[in-house]
Amino acid sequence: MVELHYDAFISYRRSDGAKVALWARRQLETYRVPRSLRSGFGRKLRIYLDTAYESGTSDFYEQNIKPALLASRFLLIVATPGAVRRVGGAEDWIEREVKDFMAGPNGNNVIAIRGAGDFDAPLPADLQRRFPNIEILDLRGAGRMWFLQPARAARLSSEKLKLVAPLLGIPPQEMPRLRQEEEVRQQTRLGAAAGAVLGVLVAVSGLSVFALHSRNQAIRAAEDSMFAAGGMASLAESLNAQDPKATARTRHLIINRGCDLVDKFRRGSISEPHIADIVMCHRERALEHERLHENATAQKLFVEAIELAHARYRQLGRMDAAVGLLEARQAYAEYFLRQGDAAGAKSEYQRILNDAQQFQREHEYWGLKGLKQSEDEAQRQISAIQSK
Q1: Beta strands 136-138 and 6-11: pairing type?
Q2: 47: β partners
Q3: Sequential pLDDT tens for the chain (388 residues)
Q4: Which CATH number fits domain 6-170: 1.10.760, 3.40.1350, 3.30.70, 3.40.50?
Q5: Are 325 and 306 in contact (CB under 8 A)?
């Protein structure tokens, strides 16, 4: 009998399902049941999600993917337009995973997740025929800052609980308690977000007072920062609107305003912004230039983020700088993959592997799990690229 190492295996098409797949894994692995239920259902969920196998060979599938698939209790399939058909006769990995999972001991434990497209659109791997009564969960819109729009957050939270319950074996009669706890957590998230915006405004106001006693350049920088922070607050408030189409646009504007604020602080403040904010701004701006096919500018921003994080780590030797450097390199490696540059991606993942190992040696007393995860992920990506 196959030993079960995972509660769920997430199958998805990397081209348009990666964002929802990553969100689902993060939400499931970090979920904690209410205190009153922890004695029976308090364990952490173990979720398998591979980020590179579509570029691998059949040997890579047999040696890495299939064993994890058969060692999982549930198969979660992210349904997107790109997952329904393969262009140019390419092999359908999702179809292969469904067939292999159905042949295993838990073949009926299949859940469909609508990640993009119309909710009633066809499911991949002929799932409607294979499972006429299959449950379809709606996780469209999942991603960063998902909790800032109340209507979307309520839907995603409810659908998430529908995933949590079968994976943890929680009976239907306990669902009201789960939902009540999730509502409290959602209110806490919104309160924390509002507090963060208020904190930025208060901090900028304080800097403005200080700048009145400094040179004119510092005064202008603080005033510009105040304006950017005010714009962030106004836009954050607009997230309460019930227009889903406006959410992505609003998020983009908030990020731009926030990054403008970070830039002003870098030029006119007596203290440096957090390296995580600097890396995030460079990454978001690089992605925007990439979408506009301005690849030279995008690469320049990716490289600059890496250099700034590296310099901060050399200067301070702190873990936040180490994590920022790994995140910057990860974004650059993913850029190479999207551009079809396997050599560039492999080179950057090798640097991630080397840096993660170095940071683990230098900060061994921290016992940080994230460094080992970065190392393992880099090794998987290198193996996938080499197997092509």
Answers
A1: unpaired
A2: 8
A3: 456 789 999 999 888 899 999 999 999 998 888 787 777 777 889 999 986 545 556 677 888 889 999 999 999 999 999 898 665 555 678 999 999 999 999 999 999 999 999 999 999 999 999 999 898 999 998 887 776 677 788 888 889 989 998 998 888 888 887 777 766 665 665 555 545 545 655 555 555 555 445 555 554 555 455 444 444 434 444 444 444 444 555 555 566 666 766 666 666 555 567 787 788 888 888 888 888 888 899 899 999 989 988 888 888 877 778 888 888 898 898 899 888 888 888 898 899 888 888 887 776 544 455 567 777 777 888 887 776 6
A4: 3.40.50
A5: yes
